[in-house]
Amino acid sequence: MRLSPGDEPARTDALSGMNAEDSARAAGAGDLSRSGEAIEFLYKFLYSSRMTMLHDATELSVTEAAQRGVARLVADAEQGNELVVTRRHRPVAAVVSIRRLEELEAAASDLRDLALVLARSVTDTGERVSLDDVLTAFGHTRESLAAMPDDE
């Protein structure tokens, strides 16, 4: 199924966009059809209007930004205006409010989590390894681990 950037999943969480059904679908362990659904969901999520990094950003050159001055740029950002500073018509910097920066950081974290869920979904064979087997592979036992000093 081909999706266009205007297609959007149901909105439930402003940052992750995932409701319980979407989360369960994205986490479908090892089932390739569910993995396809998860990838389709990720595509929709990434290209939805929520994931536009800067909303209606005003573009200005470095010269124009210098003429405005730092105080005015900061005041604009505090009022919710997003500014993209360009040099030779290429974006080199952005000025956003701290609230928007926190939203972008949270969205990036959500995307990392979603990517991990998708990677696990696609690669999960159902095989599980015991802790003792992992410790043995690294040359340890439960006792040797317990004897290690704490890093404080």
UniProtKB/TrEMBL annotation:
Family: Belongs to the phD/YefM antitoxin family.
Protein name: Antitoxin
InterPro entries in the cross-refs: YefM-like_sf
Sequence segments annotated as region (Disordered): 1-29
NCBIfam families: phd_fam (TIGR01552)
Top-level lineage group: Bacteria
